[in-house]
Amino acid sequence: MLSRLAIQNYAIIDQLEVDFSQNLNIITGETGAGKSILLGALGLILGRRADAGALLHRDRKCIVEGFFSTDALDAAVLQFLQEEELDVQEELVVRREITPAGKSRAFVNDTPVNLSQLNQLSSLLVDLHQQFDTLELGESDFQRQVLDALAGNRAGLKEYKGLFVQWQEARRRLTALEGQKEQFAREFDYHQFQFNELDEAGFKENELEDLDQQLKVQTNAEGIKNALSKAYYEIEESETPMVRCLRSITNGLQPFRDLHPDLPALVQRIESAYIELQDIADEVDRINGHVNSDPATIEQINERLSLGYKLLKKHGVKTTAELLDIRNALGGKLQAVLNIDDAIAAAAKEAEALHGRALALAQKLSAARSKQVAPLEKKVNAMLAQVGMPNARLQVVVSAGTGLQETGIDDIEFLFDANRSGQFQPLRKVASGGELSRLMLCIKSLVATSMDLPTLIFDEIDTGISGEAAKQVGIIMKDLAGARQVICITHQPQIAGKGDRHFFVYKSVNADTVKTSVRILNTDERIVAIAKMLSGEKPTAAALENAREMVMN
């Protein structure tokens, strides 16, 4: 609910504050007094384009603030504030500033926001209907919301949307798997060939590295055997073998080991060296016995290495382990081809189940909407006659859409015939601004208690009507204001008489400067203002009496 609007330095408004009632607020005034300026200022906090030319005083900034009560904020507003990390305080303050340089800034509870955020928030707070605006009444989403509100579909629609999202996600998974299968199918033969090639090669861990080492031994066997034989000869078989020299040294020191404190340790070390050298000789002899050069073996190793090097080069790797990793990865891909059919079947089954549940719920929603069509048409058409459109007819068409949609299976269209011609056409194509405004009033009065409507502002909804039709518009608006805050700019006394709070917009001249002001009228002032609307600047006694009756009733 818009509790207060504060304006500074805008157009011909120097400083102005308006405190609104929570029910029906009426704004009247002479043509040109500044009612449209008031709405222009309000438009700034609704996210409309700012213009530095609108500043009254060019040396200071323009500030427009809207104060909204948080007691009755609906869930959508609270969710928006939470998602955008904006504070929820006792009062929601939306502020717009325009500097003399033309720069514009917007704030929500003193937190800076961009115009996109401001537009989203303001659409949840204020519903502004001006005579020549493109109204949401012609939009299919609003038309669907009307039927859902009357049908009490809120809970069902929320459940359906959850199922719809799950179904869409299941379809995306299924499509992805099917695409993956196609990709697998295109690559299967190539992957199979590569896997078979590596699998048939049958390389074991570190095999190529080991074979390379074996080949080096085989090709250098003669040199290795010569070196080993020489080593063994020097240790064991030369004229003065190393082991015999060590044994001789040990025997020479043995008689004196007890005569010098360092000799026992030294003798022990020499004996250890003797034992180690003897062991080395045995190991040299053993290795020498196993070193052989076999041409057949060399040929086999070369063939094996040739195959290995070819595969290493082909796959751009350097080690046996990397080749084995590639083989295992290819095996995994081939196995995935075998498994993907099961995954596709499971995904298709899940998508089908979700589709069935969503379709059943969508059909239930559709049936509930269809039940509301005839009552809605009947009530709206009756109200259209009350508001001065006796020949106008609304027709609601609920037809099957192309499969499941985000809001169900229905395509909903409001058709309109202004002159009983029998030619119904979409609202957005045939209804005039005045007709749309009154039609919107009729529809919203029917769904006010069912939809989370924000503050409703009607700008001269009474264009082209008078007398009884204007009186009926006033009655409808009064009923609507029982459930929602309504602000109405009007020239009709019959509508003005229904207000819970009456604001009078006027111009005043101060030091050759024209300024717009607004004041709340008391009961006597309202009677006089309405009488002037009935009979002119100097109201007659009959007009005053008629105005009094309007106000008191």
Automatic annotation (TrEMBL):
Keywords noted in UniProt: ATP-binding, DNA damage, DNA repair, Nucleotide-binding
Source domain of life: Bacteria
InterPro entries with a match to the protein in the record: DNA_recomb/repair_RecN (IPR004604), P-loop_NTPase (IPR027417), RecF/RecN/SMC_N (IPR003395)
Span of domain RecF/RecN/SMC N-terminal: 1-508
Pfam families associated with the record: SMC_N (PF02463)
Entry keyword Lyase: no
Family in the record: Belongs to the RecN family.
Primary role: May be involved in recombinational repair of damaged DNA.
UniProt-recorded name of the protein: DNA repair protein RecN
Name of the gene this protein is made from: recN
